Each structure stands twice: as C-alpha cells, then as structure tokens.
Recover the amino acids of this structure.
C-alpha cells in the first residue's frame, strides 16, 4: 500500500467532511486515520476452519469425512457419474432380489395350502365313511329280523376256532390215547 | 483429496457464486469462504471486542451462522455486506453481554445519542500484547476501546476494514448521514486520545 496515496485520499475525504477548524487538527485527523489503516490484521489460529466445519458437520447429512463410509457417501453425492451409476446398480440389485424372492414366496404360500388339503382330506375321508358305515350297520340291524340275527350268531360261533379262556384245548395225542 | 480438488475448481468464483453453490448443497465451498473472510472477520471482531480468544470464538460463530443462514442470502445482495452484518450483530451482542456483566464506574460512562447500554465506553481495557506487539498499535486499540461502541464499530468498518459509507449504512441499516456523523465524532475523540502519539510521531 502506498502511504502517500492513502494519505492524500484521506486528506480529501477529511476535507470533504468539513469538520476541522485548524490546520493542526486537520493533520492530526489524517494521521489518526493513517494509523488506523495501518493496524495489523489478526491471523486465525491453526485449525480454525476445522473447528467451524466440525461445528456445522451436525447440519450436514453424512458429513463425516473422517470415516470411510462418510468419504464414500460424500463421493457418491458430489461425483454425479459415480453417484448415478451407484444408484442404478442399487436399484437393479434391489429389483433382482425382489424378483428372485417373489416365486419362492409364492410356493411357500401355496405349499401349506396343499399340505393342509392333503392332511385334511384323509381325515375327512376317514371320518365320513366311518359315520356312513355306522349308519349303514344301524340300518342293517334295523332291517334284519331276530330269527335271522340268531342264525347269524350261531354261524359265527361255529366258525370261531379261537380257544375259549378257562377251557383246555383238546390235543391230538390225548384224543388218540382215548 | 476431493476437498483440494474442489477448491481449485472454485477459486475463480465470486463470493455470491460460492454462496449459490453452498445453497445448492455443496458444503465444501464453506472452507473457501472462510479462507477469504476469516482474517477480516477476526480483525473486525477483535478490534471491536478487544480480546483475541473471544474474537476467535465469535468469528467461528459468524461462519457457522453464515452456513446455517445460507438460504436467507439472496444473490442480489453483496456477500461482504451480508457477512459483516452477521459479524456486527454477533460482536455487538457479545459486547453487550460482557458489558452488562462487568462493573462499570459511572465516571467512565460516555453517552452517545441514544441511552442504550451499548454506548458505554470501556476505558478499563488492557491491550492484548500477543496480537498488538507494537506500542503504537496497543495505544490505538486502547483508544478504540474507549470510544462508544456505536462509533467504534463504524470507525473499524471505515478506517480499518475500508468499507464505504454506503456499505456501512447497509450493514448497520441506518442512513448514510448518520454513519458519517458517528464516524466524525469517533474520529474527533480518537484524535484527542491519540494526541500524545501524534506529538511523539511528529517529533
């Protein structure tokens, strides 16, 4: 900075303000302003910018450049080409996963229905004929006459070859001795 | 690496363009804005408050506010006016709270036009020798601190920061005439306080 130039400019401005009465005052006014203009600038300490950036990092989403994840997200955000590619890749993978999951899900949904049907059907089949048999036997019992029932019972006794508990069965040997 | 690359990319841009980028979500330009303005803002606040540590804290606060208020900055305004408005408000607010805490002798009170406590001068100020190493700078800083705050802030803007009267009027949201009047009165007081210094320099 050229002092003489500044000094002259200040003199002009001081004069235009027209608030000085004596030449001494005028000179002193100019000197005061010259001294003020030469006051040293104050430097920032080391880490000033980092402190501010840390202060605002809470406001910045994913602004954690110290971490690899933060750097990755930062890169994805500010590098359009990489960001768009990553977005497309993510969407594609997501769609692929969803599509691959859908049939499997379907079969899982259908399969229980089938098993339910298969397990339920025999049970129902089992119970239904039993009932129908009971009904039919009841019907038969109702229609058969007492004489016929006696005849059937005699027939069953004759056919039954199983030993009666409490009685000795006749062996072939004993029969021959007699 | 990304940080440095982006800085070289944005070096040629104006402050207003950087703010536009910041508003669009490019947070890295904040570093560049800080590099452009930190020294001026710290100097401005230090000359007004008189404490280096407080000036650093307040300057950081100013930049955080710049970031958080980025959406309120219209591209039509001049960025330097906007940031100095924030800095002036932050510095004034801090000075007011410091001043209300401190016990001030009635003898040291100098009143400006208004009766605001902001007009109180701080004559008990001791210069920060770590910043102002020369005796002349220390004496000028002490004289500045003895000025009423409303005059001091405008003298700093005009004579140290080289802002125009019109810019100061915008920053302070007052008439240009009021700015000139306050600066005149401040200079006159400084002249009286620094008369011994003038004599030493001339002799």
């Amino acid at each position: 900075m050229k002092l003489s130039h500044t000094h002259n400019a200040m003199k002009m401005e001081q004069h235009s303000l027209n608030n000085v009465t004596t030449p001494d005052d005028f000179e002193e006014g100019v000197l005061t302003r010259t001294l003020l203009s030469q006051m040293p600038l104050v430097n920032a300490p080391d880490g000033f910018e980092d402190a501010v950036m840390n202060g605002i990092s809470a406001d910045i989403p994913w602004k954690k450049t110290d971490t690899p994840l933060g750097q990755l997200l930062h890169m994805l955000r500010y590098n359009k080409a990489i960001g768009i590619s990553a977005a497309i890749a993510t969407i594609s993978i997501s769609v692929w996963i969803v599509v691959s999951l859908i049939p499997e899900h379907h079969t899982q949904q259908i399969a229980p229905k089938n098993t339910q049907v298969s397990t339920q059907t025999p049970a129902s089949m089992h119970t239904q004929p039993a009932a129908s048999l009971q009904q039919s036997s009841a019907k038969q019992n109702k229609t058969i006459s007492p004489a016929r029932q006696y005849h059937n019972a005699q027939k069953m006794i004759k056919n039954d070859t199983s030993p009666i508990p409490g009685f000795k069965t006749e062996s072939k040997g004993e029969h021959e001795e007699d | 690496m990304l940080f440095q690359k982006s800085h070289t990319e944005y070096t040629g841009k104006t402050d207003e363009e950087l703010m536009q980028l910041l508003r669009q979500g490019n947070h890295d330009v904040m570093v560049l804005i800080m590099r452009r303005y930190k020294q001026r803002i710290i100097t401005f606040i230090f000359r007004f408050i008189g404490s280096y540590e407080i000036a650093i804290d307040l300057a950081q606060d100013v930049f955080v506010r710049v970031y958080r208020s980025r959406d309120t900055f219209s591209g039509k305004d001049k960025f330097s006016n906007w940031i100095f408005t924030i800095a002036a408000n932050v510095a004034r607010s801090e000075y007011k709270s410091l001043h209300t805490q401190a016990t001030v002798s009635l003898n040291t009170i100098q009143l400006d036009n208004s009766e605001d406590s902001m007009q109180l001068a701080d004559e008990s100020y001791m210069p920060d020798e770590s910043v102002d190493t020369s005796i002349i700078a220390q004496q000028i800083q002490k004289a500045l601190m003895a000025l009423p705050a409303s005059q001091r802030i405008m003298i700093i803007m005009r004579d140290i920061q080289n802002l125009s009267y019109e810019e100061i009027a915008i920053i302070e949201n007052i008439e240009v005439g009021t700015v000139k009047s306050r600066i005149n009165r401040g200079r006159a007081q400084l002249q009286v306080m620094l008369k011994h210094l003038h004599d030493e320099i001339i002799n």
